[in-house]
Amino acid sequence: ISAQGKPEGAGWKKDDKWGGIFRAKIVTTKEPAGNTQAHLLEWEKVNVPVGDAMGMLWAFDSLYVSGDGPDGRGIYRLKDTNGDDQLDSWMQWKKVPGGSGEHGAHALVLGPDGKSIYIVHGNATPLIEGTDAKSPYRNYAEDDLFPRVMDPVATFFDKVKSPYGYVLKTDENGTNFELFAGGFRNPYDIDFNADGELFTYDSDMEWDVGLPWYRPTRVLHILPGGEFGFREGTAKWPASHADSLPAVTNIGLGCPTGVKFGTKSNFPDKYRRAFFILDWTFGRILAVHLHPQGASYAAENQLPSPYHLTGPAKSDDVEEFVRGKGLPVTDVEFGPDGAMYFTIGGRGTQAGLYRVSHIGGGATAAPQDTIVDDFTRKARASRRTLEALSTHVDPTAVAKAWNALNSEDRVIRYAARLAIEAQPVAEWRELALAEERPRAAITALLALARLGSKTDQEPLLNALMKFPLNTLGEESQLEKLRVLEVALARHGRPSPEAMQMGAAKLNRQYPATSFALNRELCALLVEMGAPEVIGKTLALLESGDETAEQIWFALCLREATGWTPAQRERYFAWFAKAKTYRGGNSFGKFILRIRDQALEKVPEAERPMLLAIAEKHIAPPKPAQAVVVRQFVKMWTVADLEPALAGVGKGRDFVRGKKLFAEAMCSQCHLFAGGGGTAKGGAVGPDLTAVGSRFSRRDVLEAIIDPSKAISEQYASFLFTMKDGNVVSGQIAEENHYLLTVIVDPLNGTRQNFPKGNVVKREMSPVSLMPPGLLSTLTQDEVLDLLAYLESGGIEKSPAFEK
How far is CA 681 from CA 208, 665, 671, 710, in A? Predict the structure, then answer.
């Protein structure tokens, strides 16, 4: 176990630079009834200077640790050199610069062959040096059709580019590192199932909620060369993009941490095949039951939104296996006794190690392969054959893979395309241009768009014309449109004549009957300068019921040309309406940034008038909540209140707790979905809706009393030193190339603007924006009522409020 705190009895010193790694000695005994019982004998600190680990693997008589140590961030290999059962030597096995933090270097797992090591890194980890140029995942690019809008709040990701989160494959000695798959956001862990297939649980960007590019947390089947389409800001790929792989299932809001298949458990067979995924935010472990589907897998998710979970979830494929209060789950493993062991902690919360045992005996044989029919077995065999062809140049590969380009199975088509792309373009260019089968042709032309040259672009566009959109099903329509986007993104605009012809053909299909098609058509028509796209899109913008769809059309229109004055006024009038829409932490700021970028393309003389239209008819902002003057009671400490915390769970006053939540100004800075529904409040601090699921009562109390003890990097404030020597403290609200907007008073929402050139130094502040002493005017009973309200998620029927 990697720890920064002190396991009891471990002999840990608080000034240890890297925290530490600890071994828990556990003995398992069999009880008279036949059940097993585990007993923790002692904690033992591993005597090597490595810690702050996000991933560990025992393999090849070594402990591989992805963490921090004397040679900086990297993967260290620890060994026992004299056979005394103590790890006594270390070496930095692979340097991973920039691999620290919550989006850094994460888990390591042993491959099913017993020879390969697979490593997963989050989206803030730069690609390590020395990856093989012939890796399965290559030829990747941003593939943006036009400039993205970067997240106005999460500016710490501004410089992140492809491959974003990625998986590496290497061997015992790290002699060759292959880039196995990429385009993830921030997967913390990976694992193989009994079939030898790799999976992960990837995170969302929760600040994007309500925006058209929001993607929920997802279970992914990681295939060699797999692209999963995460891009920063507005450029995240939809699931329909043919050059990416789809999710096995979408889970929803959450914070993915550890994952593990139940293969090594002694649980019943259903759970031995299950994929256990940990959600830190909502304090739960989900069991995902995967079913083979063609060459991949599927799982139907029937879980409601976590905000609405008031009882056991009902789902055949995704079920809650463990859920609790104050249970911020971090990692999971199955021990030699077949039991599940999982840890909790993170961000200053109380850490712990738990064990889940099956009572009454479980399965003893290894789980069987999940395939139950010949069709699925052949599909997987075909996919694996194609994957083998994509690793090297093979003169027979094109002939072997070509027919698979026409497969109805999207995953097989994907693998076939990668096999084709691994061969010299000259071997298959003419085949792609001459192909008559729509599905095969579109897939082959996608390969040519990705690997061909500028001279291939117009022949490619001509070949696509053989397949008019109105003759194709929606899946093939979306794939054809994606080929056009990639051809333009990678090779620029073709001749004006080709652009005009393409725009005329696409314009006849716009608007389409689905948003998925309109999303691609709108972007392409704007890029091609179609004369009717502004009028048609304004009509969609003004008549649509879905705010996310409206925002996408507004995003595309900022790049359009050929406006009339009346059209511009209609466009900017939409921004006045959009300011009333609500979503995640970055939602409103994205809309403002789209507006500002659109204004930059307007003649300077027209900007004041259009900006006034954009801000017209806006209800005045609600005044900051009046501070309720209360008498000082006591400057509470955790020690004062800890003995009374058991009283949070019963006999509390819901009405008073809700009232105190408002009077303590909590809603000024935090979102909270009190009682379910849409979360409301400020976005300066983290969403508190599920705070009771991931933090213990003591953790919540300590965070209120001592807010600077643990500050998430996502909600950190900064110290800005100006040229004149003045120092400004606050949280970044918005930043562009010339201006910095800082929240200097979160309670009143006060902001200050500073020319970016005046800032000579910025550093993270060790002090939280949340002021201490918020409980000093509350009595003990009032503190307990407030904690009960938070812990319950604002649900009045919670047991804590029963009389």
Answer: 16, 10, 4, 22
For residue 362, the number of C-alpha atoms closer than 13 Å in the C-beta half-sphere is 23
Cα within 13 Å of Cα(530), Cβ side: 25
Question: Which of 798, 803, 800, 802 shows the shortest CA–CA distance to 311?
Answer: 798
Here the tokens at position 373 are: 């029919």
Q: What share of the chain is helix, strand, coil (3-state, %, to 5)?
A: 30, 25, 45
Of 215, 214, 186, give the one whose Cα is nearest residue 202: 186
Q: How far is CA 608 from CA 223, 569, 572, in A?
A: 52, 12, 11
What angle in degrees, to the nearest 10, is found between the helix axes of 496-507 and 515-528? 150
pLDDT digits (tens, 9 = 90+) for 429-455: 999 999 999 999 999 999 999 999 999
Q: How far apart are CA 567 and CA 405, in angstroms?
A: 44
CA distances, 18 to each of 67, 81, 91, 663, 711 (Å): 9, 22, 15, 41, 19
Give the torsion through C-alpha atoms of 322, 328, 332, 337, to 10 deg.
-60
Encoding tokens for residue 118? Answer: 């697979």
Which of 276, 162, 163, 279 minimizes the C-alpha distance to 216? Answer: 279
Residue from 33, 126, 113, 18 nearest 72 by CA: 18
Report yes or no: 175 and 128 within 8 Å, Cβ to Cβ: no
- Backbone φ/ψ region at 189: left (φ over 0), alpha (ψ -120 to 50), beta: beta
Name the helix (H) or strand (E) containing 548. helix 547-557
- Reading the block at residue 571, the tokens are 């466009």
| Orientation angle between helical segments 438-451 and 457-464, nearest 10 degrees | 160
User: If we measure between CA atoms, which residue out of 521, 541, 422 comes closest to residue 481?
Assistant: 521
Using one digit for the tens of pLDDT, what is the confidence trace for 548-569? 999 999 999 999 999 999 999 9
Query: Residue 35 pLDDT more than 70?
Result: no
Rounded CA separation 728/29 (Å): 60
Contacts of 424 (CB under 8 A, 6+ apart): 393
The residue to which tokens 């503190």 are assigned: 783
Concatenating the DSSP letter of every residue in 137-150 gives S-S-----SSPPPP
Q: Would you state the structure tokens that stand for residue 36, as one six-digit string? A: 């097993």
The two structure tokens encoding residue 338: 């077949």
10 token code pair? 């471990």
> Which residues are within 8 A (CB) of 212 and not within 5 positions of it... i.e. 6 or more apart?
519, 548, 549, 551, 552, 555
Peptide bond into 424 cis (omega under 30): no
For 212, counting Cβ atoms within 10 Å of its Cβ (0-12 exposed, 13-18 middle, 19+ buried), the class is buried
- Cα–Cα distances (Å) from 57 to 107, 127, 191, 619, 737, in that order, read 8, 21, 12, 56, 43
pLDDT digits (tens, 9 = 90+) for 602-640: 999 999 999 999 988 555 445 445 556 778 888 889 899
HSE toward the beta carbon, residue 131, CA cutoff 13 A: 20
pLDDT tens digit string along 135-181? 999 999 999 999 999 998 888 788 888 999 999 999 999 999 999 99
Helix (H) or strand (E) holding 60: none
DSSP H helices in 690-779: 691-694, 697-705
Q: Computed from CA positions of residues 452, 457, 459, 460, in that sequence, does the dihedral angle turn out positive or negative?
A: positive
**Separation between Cα atoms, residue 338 and residue 268, nearest integer Å:** 11
- State phi, psi for 423 to the nearest 5 degrees: -100, 155
The b-or-e profile of 184-207 (16+ CB within 10 A means b, else e) is bbbbbbbbbbbbebbbbbbbbbbb
Q: How many CA atoms lie within 13 A of 720 on its CB side?
A: 22
Partners of 288 in the beta sheet? Answer: 275, 318
**DSSP codes of every residue in 618-634:** PPPPPPPPPPPP-----
Q: Among 221-230, 460-469, 765-774, where is mean pLDDT lowest? A: 765-774
